[in-house]
Amino acid sequence: xxxxxxxxxxxxxxxxxxxxxxxxxxxxxxxxxxxxxxxxxxxxxxxxxxxxxxxxxxxxxxxxxxxxxxxxxxxxxxxxxxxxxxxxxxxxxxxxxxxxxxxxxxxxxxxxxxxxxxxxxxxxxxxxxxxxxxxxxxxxxxxxxxxxxxxxxxxxxxxxxxxxxxxxxxxxxxxxxxxxxxxxxxxxxxxxxxxxxxxxxxxxxxxxxxxxxxxxxxxxxxxxxxxxxxxxxxxxxxxxxxxxxxxxxxxxxxxxxxxxxxxxxxxxxxxxxxxxxxxxxxxxxxxxxxxxxxxxxxxxxxxxxxxxxxxxxxxxxxxxxxxxxxxxxxxxxxxxxxxxxxxxxxxxxxxxxxxxxxxxxxxxxxxxxxxxxxxxxxxxxxxxxxxxxxxxxxxxxxxxxxxxxxxxxxxxxxxxxxxxxxxxxxxxx
Length: 429
Description:
- The protein is an alpha+beta fold.
- It has helices at residues 12-20, 23-34, 43-58, 70-75, 141-161, 182-189, 237-255, 304-320, 323-327, 349-362, 377-382, 408-425, and strands at 62-67, 90-95, 104-109, 131-132, 135-137, 169-174, 197-199, 207-211, 213-222, 272-279, 289-298, 331-333, 338-339, 342-343, 368-371, 388-390, 405-407.
- The protein has twelve helices and 17 strands.
- The strands form four sheets. The protein has a six-stranded mixed sheet with strand order 1-2-6-3-7-16, sandwiched between helices. Strands 9, 10, 11, 12 and 13 form a five-stranded antiparallel sheet that branches.
- Strand 4 (131-132) and strand 5 form a beta hairpin.
- The longest helix is centred in the middle third of the chain and has 21 residues, at 141-161.
């Protein structure tokens, strides 16, 4: 049989599941997924959820497809925030027949970030799903449509193998992960749960058991308008922002002095980045307002409210020693996605289960690590109380970039490993 599995390492039922994994169908599914421009909040995102629901049904799963009640979710005190405009959203959960709570949840998000300037892409066709030298290119290839395709391949393999299982599998397909996790939050609020979950985000072969958080901030800095020819009569909001920017750099340095060992040699797991700056409305006028938006990393196991307070205190301290800002204090607000940090409980058996299966398939045991970005993991562990980790195909450093891609061989490898996890955890026989 393909791969490095041996008879001594797998049972007959497990081998049947692995034999049933259709690699060609897996690649075809990934191509079809990438060719849908399912940018967060768009109609294409909703259309793709309906396609996924059909695939779940064809894989023998009982499907729950529903329209999100956006008003109700936004009124929830634990609402995770959003950034993209949205008039609708859909949740999709497929569950194998049977009784009891699913023993394993495989989760993935179908939304992708915008493509940006097309001239930066190699072929200016970010949704072509072009395959070159065994690598599939396109927006969403690794973040995370490869993971969505893997999840479906596992369900199909279990269904097509004809094995019986003692416990149930569930697949969760969610929207709006890229701007806060609304889809995952809605899925959990609808009551879908499981004993453990694997989110197939790109992990480069590692088991990611913890995520830093990420909070979207906005800073408004006032200036005083004047004609550009007499700029000394005014106060540039752009220049007034500079001491605030320096204060954020100092805060970032302080917050990264004591890093958790799971981050390895990452020097900046809790980054503070200003992503957009808007100032002025006329070229020959001194700008009287600057609006800066960005993201602030949240430390592992740090309360998001504490992180926000440290940020606001740093801005206030910078303003207190500046003659202009002291009388015109910057305004800090927290719009958009609010990702708390999240972590699988240390020593949880899920790590060993997934690591064992990966070692059987690849011949190498994966390392455990933490990721510096926010994800749905914190909702599954926090809101859902579900022990959760990430393991999926691709390199996150390619995500959100014009070179986004994923090696086909890695997609297949991850699918085989998780099919083995599923067969073992569900008691295939």
